[in-house]
Design brief:
The chain is mainly α. It has two domains: about 110 residues, no CATH class; about 80 residues, no CATH class. About 70% of the residues lie in helices and about 0% in strands. It has ten helices and no strands. The protein is globular and about 50 Å long.
């Protein structure tokens, strides 16, 4: 029964995660984001190809879909047999999976940084604050969104452990970091080769 409930919340998260706000926003601008710039349906590509306002809307949408879902679970306390945090973790993993492989968009999704930020902000606010501040510092210092995202990912397991969150949350942080690094493997190669897109320099 518990396992069934966990999978149910993960599936709910998957459906929510499958709503890609970069695609939704680009639709209202009458363009297909998958055919512009890097082709990635994420806020960064929306900023590059459509504009800053559109990119901010895409980021807010992707951040909020995980934040709101996880916060609702934590506040509503839907089950007595499973901890709210564990249900939130299951839902967040579902959202991230849906964002990467969205059923509504032929399983072609984004890299999940904004989604991870939102879910972590709900589950582990201390970890999220440090990670997002680090993201801002690295981005403003280098102009590389990818580098900022990688440092954000790297901070997750370190700060979740340092703040004393439970083991399930620390494992989640490690999983999120691994996923972000995997999704940015192309960016890592371009950073190494010196060919990565750099805001403010092109």
């Amino acid at each position: 029964m518990n396992l069934c409930a966990v999978f149910s919340f993960a599936f709910l998260g998957y459906l929510v995660g499958s709503i890609l706000f970069a695609r939704v926003v680009s639709y209202f601008y009458k363009v297909d984001i998958s055919k512009l710039g890097s082709g990635n349906p994420g806020a960064t590509n929306v900023v590059r190809t459509i504009g800053k306002c559109a990119g901010i809307l895409a980021f807010i949408g992707d951040f909020s879909k995980s934040f709101v879902l996880v916060m609702l679970i934590l506040r509503m306390r839907p089950l007595d047999t499973i901890s709210d945090a564990d249900l939130g973790i299951a839902a967040l993993l579902g959202v991230v999976l849906g964002h990467h492989f969205p059923i509504f968009f032929k399983f072609k999704g984004g890299k999940g940084v904004a989604v991870t930020m939102g879910g972590i902000a709900a589950l582990m606010p201390g970890t999220a604050i440090i990670g997002i501040l680090l993201w801002c510092v690295i981005f403003h210092a280098t102009g590389f969104v990818s580098a900022a995202s990688l440092f954000f990912a790297l901070s997750l397991p370190i700060t979740s452990f340092a703040f004393g969150y439970n083991m399930h949350s620390v494992v989640l942080a490690i999983a999120m970091a691994v996923i972000i690094f995997w999704c940015h493997r192309g960016n890592i190669r371009r950073l190494w080769a010196g060919s990565e897109y750099r805001f403010g320099k092109q």
